[in-house]
Amino acid sequence: xxxxxxxxxxxxxxxxxxxxxxxxxxxxxxxxxxxxxxxxxxxxxxxxxxxxxxxxxxxxxxxxxxxxxxxxxxxxxxxxxxxxxxxxxxxxxxxxxxxxxxxxxxxxxxxxxxxxxxxxxxxxxxxxxxxxxxxxxxxxxxxxxxxxxxxxxxx
Length: 155
Hints:
There is one protein chain. The chain is mostly beta strands. It contains no helices and ten strands. A ten-stranded antiparallel beta barrel has the order 1-2-3-4-5-6-7-8-9-10. Strand 4 and strand 5 form a beta hairpin. The chain is globular, with a radius of gyration of 18 Å. It starts with 25 loop residues before the first strand and ends with a strand.
């Protein structure tokens, strides 16, 4: 190995925009209700943590809806082309990798994919996020995936 090849590569720093996601870091519980349900029928947990290097946020989630349980892992990274965050979701429900987008402006969190969108509000103390999923225009047949939920920070 030549002397010039011994230098370590220069490591960049994570984009400052990633700091918008910092308020998600931690462990959360979730309770919710499908639209049209007369009782809470959704429970779950989410654990958001930075991957080494700080370039990507990982979300490990477990959700139960009316007794049906599933697991997901989501990797969220910053996309400067849209000044938002793109994520890839791996789930125990299917082999397809789902692509989502995230944004966090002020106290409003949005999370969307091609047929539906989540909009939530984080509390001033950062301990809760209240919001819900709704179908995007033209995808109303996807209404079975609509629900409201409250996430509560546990750690």
